């Protein structure tokens, strides 16, 4: 092995939570980095150094070897050099490479040709170190006393660009080094240093959410289109076969404009043995007529398109990883997440563009379907080469379509497989409208070791049915109508501002379950870290759409819901920032209704992190949920179960919550990593008791 590429990819990230699994052009950043290295002809082996199981899974699927990065080298202050040197040490028995390449996931657009050119310079002895950089003629200034001063120029003399010698801005994408020199100096720069210039369009580093949005917007322009090797092509209709416009005559009859070239594309696919299908939410004779003309099957009038797609794939015996789906709006997100090749039309909804692995260059109704067909045919034996407006930097295809159940960042925590269980103290309305009680319950949760507390937020005039508003209710504050009572226990902006301040002081996240759209707007003004969808709200599609629009992490409780109802909710909410909670909405919950194996069912069905929201008495069921893989546990909490109010009886008191968190942490430790081995504590009894015979 002459050339080893090392990709440091820790799970933690300050600017963008779990940045290395963030998707650009439909691929996680770590996958893009590995793909570039694999495609470089001079790189012999690719290693990813990581402390995160999800990153390791994605990297291994793309063809990388995994080196477990120890905690001491995984913090925010750990250098990239330390990860590279650790990887070299771990691989010491496999032969010392002559050249090592440090490749950073933060650069989404690494051209394998640039990597090869840089490696070639070191192998040829032209330099000891080569780094990626952009040529620049920019004027740089710094703060100098009361004003600013020129760094690389005299402000009194402003030569023309063509009269200035070029300078180079380091991109951070890759560093090629002699391995022996790195070991000797412990730093990436030593000896003779040279530059490998790269295009300016490749030089955006992802350090902030804004950077991530920029590279996602650039991906359709920068990534070079390549063949799409699939066994089936499924398309949405409106916005894909059409430009999403409809013509209506005086009789109410609809007509749309389509591209004739799409028909030939589908015909060629069918001749090549590629299965095709059209899915549509609407039941429309226009869709039926067009599908008949194309000679393709169509499923329409669907409330949950991805459920229909999953069933069709099962019936046809197709591997979702080898299926392409092209869509343009949020009701396509479930289908896009299900297949290995999610495709979007240009001008699609931003969430669809972010989820897409491929963004077509032709618009819906203007040859988008034909473009996709041509790229699929290009992957078949003897197929034509795909066409595109320009030749762009290559990002090779991954060896796996996606990473399932990737952790979701909530506040300062990652919630998902391989992460500490995220424990939520559900205060709900157990504060009884008293801010002091709320603060005391926050203390209870923080002292027990919870990561978050959750409240409920309602607009009583919306949430209280008309027939119940004037019903008289006996309360600790005297006799009042039910509507008056709901106002009495509802916190406003001043109270929640204090709750936010106090939670920050105690170092604990807070959010709430909004029960109506104005409550979502209220909580957005409070800048909560996430939103919780109560089980009662799973079928409130207006509320779900508003929550999806926030872009915040969403926690979906699934009590009293069928899989079909959950399918519809997930289609609206998407899965990129979704955590699901298995729940049974019985208060208190009897063990025979807990149905904890549904945690596994939900995880396998939706591919998202799944937790447990419990309403039982005691701790056993919640702890069992953790052993089944629940990534978060939510329990109602109270100061005293005998307090007045509907939820106190099914809540945990302070000591119960403390024991719950303690036992969850013990279980996490006890579950281990699943690798069967002899532990240090077994060595003595093994030497004393083990008998070996032949």
From TrEMBL:
Pathway: Amino-sugar metabolism; N-acetylneuraminate metabolism
Gene Ontology MF term list: hydrolase activity, acting on ester bonds; N-acylneuraminate cytidylyltransferase activity; N-acylneuraminate-9-phosphate synthase activity
One Pfam family it belongs to: Hydrolase_3
InterPro entries per UniProt: Aldolase_TIM, Cytidylyl_trans, HAD-like_sf, HAD_sf, KdsC_fam, Nucleotide-diphossugar_trans, PseI-like, PseI/NeuA/B-like_N
Biological process terms in GO annotation: carbohydrate biosynthetic process; N-acetylneuraminate metabolic process
Enzyme class: transferase
Recorded catalytic activity of this chain's protein: an N-acylneuraminate + CTP = a CMP-N-acyl-beta-neuraminate + diphosphate
Origin: domain of life: Bacteria
EC code: 2.7.7.43
CDD domains on file: CMP-NeuAc_Synthase
Residue ranges occupied by any PseI/NeuA/B-like domain in the UniProt entry: 441-676
Family affiliation: Belongs to the KdsC family.
Protein name stated in the entry: N-acylneuraminate cytidylyltransferase
Species assigned in the record: Sphaerisporangium rubeum
